[in-house]
Design goal:
heterodimer, A: mainly alpha, 15 helices, 76% helix, B: alpha/beta, Rossmann fold, six-stranded mixed sheet, four-stranded antiparallel sheet, globular
Chain lengths: 369, 430
């Protein structure tokens, strides 16, 4: 259960950190803290990955330079980066709701794919029957509902039986991924193609592009989703209720909140947003779902949400850099022969270094006391 | 402690060096010996969890004997046993003592201490309150011994400052009425049985009892946090038996929990949010579900000033404050709005002397204002000083309700006997 340990450790850290930020900054300068907590670890992570790159015989400067050039400095690359952000942002929104409410929804991949399949199965059939905006709306709504439905079992088990949702959501995610591909092959398969995939939504009927670029307007909706979730969690009574359940369920019960109902609501919101993420990728970018398609974005954004400390603005910034990293490394994989999965190595070393930074910071703070 | 999924033999061999095979033959032989000597009969291959509690206790004793222990400490060993089982345990303890073992037997049941003990030591709030030697015990009857223990446990020590008895401010109308209330109990939580009491406006009713005799469950049942098996609760004549926690609060029934840190507050949240945790979504702090941070902060600053909470600011996480200051803020939270009845659970527990004093004064003032106060406390001094009447709980039941006329020592000892569960026996015999 290393994953759970890690999650618990990080969440405990965020709490102590939140507590620490209120303290007058006289113990150690704020600059030093930023250095140990963010800037230092990021530099260390890039250095660490550079060492690994050198070990496999690739010049790290070329690699990093290539990624930068391909994802951010070239017009097309930047547009790809921005388009890639849309599903990741929806997923972040879903995870922020869940994590802030103390629910570790790790099943976003299954919810994402089933949402995607639901959108891909219905939208092409509705074209011509409904006006364009209604087709998209129906696709998004259906995806959200299907995603949320896929979380009902873990939600019920958690809310009324106290079954650990980390296990159940992961299990349901495996099932969801397989079910999605089964549905594509058996039921929603496009009879016109030889490769098993769903019917394709024509490009003209997809989410409109932004201005004259290739950026999908899903980006805007994704940004809205993250910001809306952020405001909901920090500014509304519903958000405070969810946070209270997350921070201290006993106190929440004492204060008269219905912890089971709020838990159910959290699952529905989180999984619904994961479903929307799937729809945004289908209705905005790809237009169909091939069988066995699973980009596994859901698990990918979990570290980002943690790094952002469940903060929506922070998550947007990190998603931007992460998309850039993904797009850049996809090209780099082709050109320099560094596997695309090297991005994961980079992210993993970043997580480890940030964890170490956190540890060092706590250690120093303890000494000062 | 035993591992319920292992066999008796495995439990007996736990803690042996890892490289040895469990010496089954040797243990079986020793068990045979113990069986003759102490009437311990244990099926070695049975799964421990399937045995009765009495048998499980025998395993623990056997384990101690197998390891040639010199001292055996039994903590509340009879609390889960039937009277018959307790009797057997008592005889077994006497045999163990005869074989040269020293036994420390910790119990809440005073008569057991007299029956099975050679000497009795009385502990009170972490200090030795008194001792009774073998000769002294022999010269006493059971009743006399129990009286003496009660005196040591609950009597006022010489030189203790006598607290002023509060003048009653009770009015005529009944604020809170509880009829035949019962709750479900289990292995960890004591159930309540047939609790009936009434509380008038302006009256302070104290609830006395040794910790863990159902007081917390009573408070939770009042607040709506604990489902009832049967019974009825009325607030100002209105039936609130089925009302939710939030509804009861809005109707004016407030509960100040004894667990300030993990139930009363959310440590990582700022003081200001903690001050409104029980009013989430209510105006004026939220309008149409949207937070009004200024009103929340203002309210918090107001509470901080009125209840003299010492905190750097209202944005400080409440977990950073001392217990006394958290208590003051929670008290302020419970009293804000239209409070009618306040249930206090151990309001001064763990506070320093000055905070205890101000808390007690506040409780008196609350009653003066015409609110009904149910004051649960394990501190008899506190109850005697503040209450109009005192309800004594033991084993999840009410053992008696006494008028607190401030008559002092006699009343005190009578309450003490009821708390120890001894009063009933006395009445039954008389």
């Amino acid at each position: 259960m290393t994953m759970q340990d890690e999650i618990n450790a990080v969440s405990a850290d965020t709490q102590t950190d939140a507590a620490a930020s209120a303290r007058p900054v006289n113990e150690r300068s704020a600059f030093q803290r930023i250095l140990t907590l963010t800037v230092g670890p990021i530099i260390a992570a890039f250095l660490l990955s550079a060492i690994i790159l050198m070990l496999v015989g690739v010049n790290p400067l070329t690699y990093y330079g290539y990624i930068l050039e391909r994802s951010l400095l070239s017009g097309l690359g930047l547009q790809q980066t921005a388009t890639r952000m849309a599903p990741l942002l929806f997923l972040c929104a879903g995870l922020i709701v869940a994590f802030r409410a103390g629910i570790w929804n790790l099943g976003t991949d299954g919810q994402f794919l089933l949402g995607a399949v639901a959108a891909a199965a219905t939208a092409p059939l509705l074209v011509g029957i409904l006006p364009g905006w209604a087709v998209l709306l129906a696709g998004f709504l259906l995806a959200a509902i299907v995603g949320a439905l896929w979380s009902v079992i873990p939600a019920l088990l958690k809310a009324y039986q106290g079954v650990n949702e980390i296990i159940t959501t992961l299990m349901m995610s495996f099932l969801g991924v397989l079910l999605a591909s089964t549905l594509v092959k058996l039921i929603f398969r496009d009879p016109a193609t030889t490769v098993p995939q769903t019917r394709t939504l024509p490009v003209d009927d997809r989410l409109p592009r932004l201005f004259d670029t290739s950026i999908s307007s899903g980006l805007i909706w994704g940004l809205i989703a993250v910001l809306a979730v952020h405001l909901m969690m920090t500014r509304t009574s519903f958000g405070l209720r969810l946070r209270m359940v997350g921070a201290n369920p006993v106190a929440a019960t004492h204060a008269g909140l219905s912890v089971p109902l709020l838990t159910m609501a959290t699952f529905a919101l989180s999984a619904g947003l994961a479903g929307l993420a799937g729809a945004s990728e289908i209705l905005g970018v790809t237009g169909n779902v091939p069988a066995n398609w699973n980009p596994a974005y859901g698990l990918m954004v979990i570290p980002l949400v943690f790094l952002a400390r469940f903060n929506g603005i922070g998550a947007i910034v990190l998603v931007f850099f992460y998309s850039a990293l993904m797009i850049g490394s996809e090209s780099a994989a082709r050109r320099l022969g560094v596997p695309q999965n090297f991005t994961l190595v980079l992210v993993a070393s970043l997580l480890i270094c940030l964890g170490l930074g956190e540890y060092i910071d706590q250690h120093k703070r303890k000494k000062e006391r | 402690m035993l591992v319920p999924t292992l066999t008796v033999l495995e439990n007996l061999t736990l803690g042996a060096p890892w490289y040895e095979r469990p010496p089954r033959a040797r243990i079986a032989a020793r068990m045979e010996e113990l069986k003759r000597q102490f009437a311990l009969s244990l099926p070695l291959d049975a799964i421990t969890g399937e045995l009765s509690l009495g048998q499980q206790q025998q395993i623990e004793i056997a384990r101690a004997l197998l390891r040639d222990s010199k001292v055996l400490i039994l903590d509340e060993a009879t609390s889960m046993l039937t009277p018959q089982g307790a009797q057997e345990l008592g005889e077994r303890m006497q045999q163990l003592v005869k074989s040269g073992l020293a036994v420390i037997f910790i119990t809440h049941k005073l008569a057991e201490a007299y029956r099975y003990g050679n000497r009795i030591s009385v502990l009170k709030q972490g200090a030795l309150a008194g001792e009774m030697g073998p000769e002294q015990l022999k010269s006493m009857s059971e009743d006399e011994a129990v009286d003496e223990i009660v005196r040591l446990m609950f009597g006022r020590e010489a030189g203790a400052t006598s607290t002023e008895h509060r003048k009653s401010t009770a009015r005529d109308n009944v604020a809170l009425k509880v009829e035949a209330l019962s709750t479900e109990g289990d292995a960890d939580v004591m159930g309540l049985e047939d609790i009936s009491l009434s509380l008038r406006a302006g009256e302070i009713v104290g609830v006395a009892g040794i910790d863990g005799n159902g007081q917390k469950q009573l408070a939770e049942a009042m607040a709506g946090q604990r489902p009832l098996k049967s019974g009825r609760v009325e607030l100002d004549g209105e039936d609130i038996t089925r009302a939710s926690i939030a509804q009861r609060r809005r109707k004016g029934l407030r509960y100040l929990t004894d667990d300030r840190l993990s139930e009363g507050s959310v440590a990582a949240f700022p003081v200001s949010e903690n001050a409104v945790l029980k009013d989430i979504g209510q105006p004026p702090f939220w309008v149409n579900g949207l937070e009004r941070p200024h009103r929340i902060a203002e309210h918090a600053r107001d509470l901080i000033a009125r209840f003299s909470v010492s905190t750097p600011s209202e944005t400080t996480p409440i977990g950073r404050l001392s217990g006394g200051n958290i208590q003051k803020l929670l008290l302020g939270r419970e009293l804000s709005g239209e409070a009618r009845v306040v249930v206090f659970n151990k309001p001064t527990y763990g506070l320093d002397l000055q905070n205890i004093d101000t808390s007690r004064q506040r409780i008196g003032q609350i009653a003066e204002r015409g609110l009904g106060v149910l004051l649960i406390s394990t501190d008899l001094d506190e109850l005697m000083a503040l209450s109009d009447r005192i309800v004594v709980m033991e084993g999840g039941r009410i053992r008696g309700i006494v008028e607190n006329d401030g008559s002092g020592e006699a009343l005190r000892l009578r309450i003490g006997r009821m708390m120890a569960g001894e009063e009933e026996n006395r009445q039954a015999m008389a």
